[in-house]
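Quick one:
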Amino acid sequence: MLLTLVYSTFVTLGDIWAKFRGNSFFHRTISTVSLPYFIVDSAGSSKEYIVHHLAAALMMVGGSFSTCDLSTPVITYHMLCSLEYSTIFLNLYRMKRAKIYKYLFVATFLYFRTYRFSRWYFYEPWRSEVELICTDHIVYNNDVCNSIFIYGLFTINTLNVFWTTIILKKLVGHYLAVGWLIYYIFTNNSHIGTSLGSRLVTLGI
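Output:
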């Protein structure tokens, strides 16, 4: 719990620092630190957390060993880092049991993971940025690197929706949570079916 709090705080402050500096140089440091963290934190975790950590760890290798230009912001790195913002309040709530941390966790989770990440995933052209990350990659070949980010981002977004449904079920009840899930699928219907498929076509899969 303490390790997760320290890590999420480090990622959050590092991401804010990178945004302030107007580049992504520190995101490489975050990727390098994140890789061993996800391996260590997977021990004893639930199945969905292990899947999350595996997808994240593979993408962190992508970030650590990319040769892309970091002198300008890489939005994909920022969006992945922003997922850790809410984790700070989750761990503070688990440690202190103060309701203010619970409310802050729910608010930041719903905004950064449910709304902001999903909107970016479905509606922003992140595919071209992933191609830049994967070009001349030190560890992965181009196809493997692209596949890792395509499957990885799909997995992260799917887990975010899964966890959002659980949170809403606790807050507003089963039926309203299911109602939200139906609404989410309906409003993103034209993108859910093509977001993964269209990108896999470009890989010849």
